[in-house]
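pls design
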């Protein structure tokens, strides 16, 4: 998937990884175009003035901004920043381009790279200093339109994870503490890695409200001829999606690729045997690939003569190819092939005559099975708790904790402080849109300590996902 590089936190995306990105990109790009969102491209470089324009938003992030200070041997008169995100790059032009209500909505997206000079431990895909993403930035006349788009985009993010990467996610709203500080509210899709017991933010769709509109003077004249301010959203998903997929499905043999994003869905391997009809086997492999390709299946044959079939099996298993087709003398005789699933290891003999249909079905089954298994594993880790003791216990068991919460920031911070230890500390992932039934008698929450997990005085008892994070 990747190759290490001589700059820490930077990785080469090899074709096997890039093709996943391209497939997700084709899906998302087509969907946002249906929504009348248009692609554009803004420069990579940001002048210091523009970057500073929105001080509050930049302040906490400043150490992560990478700067270009020289050209050749001469110092630049004014250093130039490399975009960590494009709000300050784009919004001055939103201000210029939006004049009247007929200029709205303005809905732009760009596919690009961004640089954030992180100092915590870099991890391929999950935390890299340069990554690929799409960033959507939109402006509307009304909050209602903005609200609707936030959820439409979030649904596309869910589909990328669940339908393409076969990774179950939880949709929800970030707490005030965890939301994007520059915005009004943040919605998110959250994934869970059972092996580590950690939650991971999958993608976010923010309603920015009118904060940026105020700072960048993004105003327009409404139908009544009055000056009004736009409502804005921004949303992004990154190459981190690939890292989440790898962690959720990988096993001891290596990667497990969901068929929908696999560059090679079927690898066809000839299994010649002594005096058997080797040419016939090779021809059958080529025919198989041709038949599969013609029905839109991404299949390839591995004809290399310097590796044994056994070596090829492990090689393609490690790369996570969803289905392996073996053709040996017996198969040739019976005019069939042997199909071996990467996800379950189960084997099927498939007649040549119906190969395309049957392989198509198998791939769909594998896609569904990967999702189902991942969901079962995730669901088995979800623990609803009522007391502080239960909370701590579940956390130590690497559970995804659903805890009642009063929506108070103090209390959220208190939980962080109290749980701080070697593992990191607990923090909220989101308030899921789908809430479990409130356990009967909210009064029973009254004995929960600390206050974090309880506030029976409030009617608002939302449940929150909580996880453990690194220090
Ligand atoms: C927050 C917010 C937002 C557009 C998205 O999540 C969707 C796409 N942007 C990004 N964020 C920063 O604003 C930020 C700013 C600077 Cl200067 C930085 F160095 C790092 C940042 N990281 C995140």
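designed seq:
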């Amino acid at each position: 998937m990747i190759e290490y590089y001589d700059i820490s936190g930077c990785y080469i995306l090899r074709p096997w990884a890039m093709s996943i990105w391209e497939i997700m990109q084709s899906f998302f790009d087509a969907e946002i175009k249906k929504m009348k969102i248009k692609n554009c491209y803004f420069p990579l470089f940001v002048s210091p003035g523009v970057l500073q324009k929105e001080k509050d938003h930049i302040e906490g992030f400043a150490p992560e901004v990478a700067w270009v200070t020289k050209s050749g041997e001469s110092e630049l008169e004014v250093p130039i920043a490399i975009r960590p995100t494009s709000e300050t790059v784009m919004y001055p032009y939103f201000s210029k381009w939006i004049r009247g209500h007929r200029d709205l909505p303005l809905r732009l997206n760009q596919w690009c790279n961004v640089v954030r000079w992180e100092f915590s431990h870099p991890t391929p895909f999950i935390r890299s200093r340069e990554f690929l993403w799409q960033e959507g930035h939109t402006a509307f006349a009304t909050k209602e339109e903005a609200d609707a788009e936030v959820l439409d985009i979030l649904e596309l993010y869910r589909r990328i994870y669940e339908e393409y990467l076969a990774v179950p996610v939880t949709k929800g709203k970030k707490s005030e503490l965890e939301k994007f500080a520059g915005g009004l509210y943040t919605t998110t899709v959250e994934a869970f890695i059972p092996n580590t017991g950690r939650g991971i933010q999958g993608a976010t769709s923010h309603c920015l409200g009118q904060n940026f509109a105020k700072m960048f003077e993004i105003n327009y004249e409404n139908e009544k001829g009055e000056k009004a301010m736009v409502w804005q959203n921004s949303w992004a998903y990154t190459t981190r999606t690939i890292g989440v997929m790898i962690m959720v499905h990988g096993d001891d043999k290596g990667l497990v690729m969901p068929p929908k994003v696999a560059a090679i869905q079927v690898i066809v391997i000839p299994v010649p045997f002594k005096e058997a009809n080797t040419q016939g086997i090779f021809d059958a492999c080529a025919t198989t690939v041709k038949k599969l390709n013609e029905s839109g299946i991404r299949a390839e044959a591995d004809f290399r003569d310097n590796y044994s079939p056994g070596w090829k099996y492990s090689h393609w298993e490690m790369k996570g190819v969803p289905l392996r087709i073996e053709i040996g003398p017996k198969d040739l005789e019976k005019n069939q092939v042997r199909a071996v699933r990467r996800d379950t290891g189960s084997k099927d003999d498939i007649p040549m005559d119906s190969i395309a249909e049957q392989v198509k079905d198998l791939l769909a089954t594998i896609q569904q099975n990967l999702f189902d298994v991942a969901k079962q594993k995730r669901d088995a880790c979800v623990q609803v708790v009522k007391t502080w003791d239960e909370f701590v216990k579940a956390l130590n068991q690497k559970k995804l904790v659903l805890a009642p919460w009063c929506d108070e920031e103090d209390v959220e911070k208190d939980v962080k402080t109290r749980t701080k230890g070697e593992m990191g500390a607990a923090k909220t992932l989101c308030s899921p849109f789908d809430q479990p039934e409130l356990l009967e008698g909210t009064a029973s929450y009254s004995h929960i300590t600390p206050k974090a997990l309880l506030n029976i005085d409030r009617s608002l008892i939302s449940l929150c996902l909580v996880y453990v994070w690194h220090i």
